[in-house]
Design goal:
This protein is mainly α and 424 residues long. It contains 22 helices and no strands. The radius of gyration is 22 Å and the shape is globular.
Length: 424
């Protein structure tokens, strides 16, 4: 039993911060020391991921790609193919092969093949995390701590932006210089956030208090970013996680009430932000005649009608939508259809949509099934909420085959899938 597991067992009802943190640090040192020297460096690199993703997309992509490729090479050298027998892994590769075929049959095969070919690095990173990097639960706990710390750092950066320059049209942009920091808070930070909410409403002691405070702080910052879907992912994911792991109902209702009150205070102080989450959001989600988002999603469906079998090829929507949607009402050309399922249908055809949906929901089911086998572990019990929230079909979403969104999203999905492996 690890130091942290022993402490959690002994102090299940009243956890304190310093002893828990000390136990986690000791476990991390022991776990790294037990690894072969060449693997130790890659595991340390993996643990630095939440901080590397704070820099920019190129370093973050390099971090993810190096680990994914190393895992592939390691599997060949060690002749380790057991992970290839897992259903969601097989579903992922089948979907990828179809994407390559769709790209080869597309209007612009050279570009589309490139997009489809390199996309596999994201699922491969998830496989590397689940079947190699997070096999030792001591290192998995260390990664969850790193995710929590990275989220706090990002929230502090955004708080500094609010105090120094304020919002820009109801949005925030630090540290990247574009309007995507809420993507980090919502997706990279989701594994830690769901655990914090679950702890805040279920256990006693300072750990629960700190978890509740950090969760409240981060949800308020998420509102301030002005990224509505990312806020909903966090808010709904947190409420769901709080329900599925031993909730004390008075504390759960109290936490929800405090978060609602905090959000109302933000809306009162910042009417432009409030407008984005109320009138603008409702109109954008329901009024088909005027909603730019609904027109963009519909664009994928319209294009799919004439390209039902193979689609137009992964990544080609950005180049072909202006031509294919010319003079078509209730459509809007864009870089992508702003919905994963509309994009899969449009760019890979109906077979690609079926294969892609099976892949995504196989990951959700794998995490959900693992939660029934280990209800006592807060991470395992709540991990399925992460892919469930990220792959929810009726939502606006970023480019399924793109770079920046996928780095954030798959870093969270990878951690969630670690609950399905046989943790040591």
């Amino acid at each position: 039993m690890s130091h942290l597991d022993q402490y959690l067992t002994e102090q299940a009802d009243s956890m304190r911060i310093r002893p828990a943190l000390k136990a986690l640090i000791n476990d991390t040192k022991d776990a790294l020391a037990s690894l072969p020297r060449w693997e130790r460096g890659f595991h340390i690199l993996w643990l630095l991921g939440p901080f590397i993703m704070l820099i920019e997309r190129t370093p973050a992509d390099a971090w993810l790609t190096i680990l994914a490729l190393t895992f592939a090479v390691r599997s060949v050298v060690k002749r380790d193919a057991a992970w290839l027998k897992i259903f969601w892994v097989k579903a992922g590769f089948v979907f990828w092969f179809w994407c390559l075929l769709s790209a080869a049959m597309s209007y612009d095969p050279a570009y589309s093949l490139g997009e489809a070919f390199v996309w596999i690095r994201f699922p491969l990173f998830a496989m590397a995390t689940a079947f190699w990097l997070a096999q030792d639960k001591r290192l998995l706990y260390a990664m969850l701590l790193a995710v929590a710390l990275g989220t706090v750092v990002m929230c502090c950066i955004l708080l500094a932006e609010i105090l120094i320059v304020g919002q820009q049209g109801g949005r925030l942009s630090w540290p990247y210089g574009d309007l995507t920091p809420g993507n980090y808070v919502a997706k990279v930070g989701l594994p830690a956030f769901t655990i914090m909410v679950a702890l805040a409403v279920s256990v006693k002691g300072r750990v629960a208090g700190l978890a509740g405070i950090v969760a409240l702080f981060s949800i308020m910052i998420s509102v301030m970013t002005g990224e509505r879907i990312n806020f909903l992912i966090r808010a709904c994911g947190g409420m769901l996680a709080g329900l599925v792991w031993k909730p004390k109902w008075h504390r759960y209702l109290g936490l929800v009430a405090v978060e609602i009150l905090a959000i109302l205070l933000v809306f009162t102080a910042l009417p432009k932000t409030a407008l984005r989450y109320t009138n603008e959001f409702i109109v954008g989600a329901t009024n088909f005649e005027t909603s730019g988002w609904l027109h963009t999603v519909n664009s994928g469906l319209v294009i799919a009608r004439d390209n039902l079998l193979f689609g137009i090829g992964p990544g080609n929507f950005r180049f072909l939508s202006h031509e294919l949607l010319k003079d078509v009402p209730y459509t809007r050309p864009d870089n992508h259809p702003h919905n994963y399922y509309s994009q899969m249908l449009c760019e890979t055809g109906v077979i690609g949509l079926v294969l892609g949906s099976v892949f995504l929901w196989a990951m959700i089911w794998a995490c959900f099934r693992a939660s029934f086998k280990n209800r006592d572990n807060v991470f395992v019990a709540t991990a399925w909420v992460i892919p469930f929230g990220l792959f929810w079909p009726i939502a606006t979403s970023a480019d399924f085959f793109g770079q920046w969104n996928n780095i954030f999203m798959w870093s969270a999905v990878a951690v969630a899938l670690a609950c399905t492996s046989k943790l040591k």
